[in-house]
Amino acid sequence: MSLEVTGLEVAYGRTRAVRGLTLRVEPGEIVTVLGANGAGKTSLLRALQGAVKPAGGQIVYNGHDLTGQGAAARVRAGIALVPEGRQIFVSMTVHENLLMGGYLRGDDKLNRDVEAIYDRFPNLASRRDMRASVLSGGEQQMLAVGRALVARPSLVMLDEPSLGLSPLFVERLFGLIREINAEGLSILLVEQNTHMALETATRGYVLELGQVTREGPAERLAADASMAEAYLGGGADPAPAPA
Ligand SMILES: Nc1ncnc2c1ncn2[C@@H]1O[C@H](COP(=O)(O)OP(=O)(O)OP(=O)(O)O)[C@@H](O)[C@H]1O
Ligand SMILES: [Mg+2]
């Protein structure tokens, strides 16, 4: 897969949330997008997901122009989102949540792929018929990732997946991201946990007021001591709450 975003504009009325953003994800990459609250990170992902219509620019995936296409077309093209705040259906069972990830699939391999998710996440397997509300925050994040994987994506976008997780679950989450990347999926990772994100990613972009202010190899951004303070509002990783 390859994703090429050129000159993307997202606006809500007079608020320009994303301004002339150009970004790419090459096959096999983990690319991170960093930025403070309100920088436009979620707006970028929602435009890529097809949930908001860009006010300008172009989104090309595997050579196909998806700019004017809706959310279903994005899923079919292989783009899956693990949304901000997880957005688990808490009144549904774990199993039903996973099936939702495959709602656009017309093939008969869905059950097999859901079983593969249970192999990967034994905590979900043992709770498959329970309501998702019984899961801890960390387990809900795993469920959100599992639900995205059920769509058989080639690109997984994650919106601040580590937010609110205990340090143990943050470690497991970033391990999981590396694992699915090693299995061939490309990753677009939005984070405020700058340290972990740059340790995991190959390249990164810094967003400030909707614009890319820095980009480059993750090691170079991580070594840039001025970056955290100047662009990320102090640079300290937010203290994680218990999962
Ligand atoms: N639905 C909306 N309607 C109007 N303005 C919005 C809407 N969603 C976001 N915004 C505004 O767009 C800008 C970018 O918001 P966005 O949620 O994309 O930022 P973010 O980087 O994801 O922030 P956070 O770290 O808090 O999640 C902000 O000024 C925000 O107030
Ligand atoms: Mg956001």
UniProtKB/TrEMBL annotation:
Keyword Transmembrane helix in annotation: no
What's one GO BP annotation on this UniProt entry?
L-amino acid transport
ABC transporter domain residues:
3-234
Name the UniProt key words of this record, in alphabetical order: Amino-acid transport, ATP-binding, Nucleotide-binding, Transport
Q: Does the keyword Nucleotide-binding apply?
A: yes
| GO MF, any single term | ATP binding
Q: Which family does it belong to?
A: Belongs to the ABC transporter superfamily.
The name this protein goes by in its record: Amino acid/amide ABC transporter ATP-binding protein 2, HAAT family
- Organism of origin is Albimonas donghaensis
Species classification = Bacteria, Pseudomonadati, Pseudomonadota, Alphaproteobacteria, Rhodobacterales
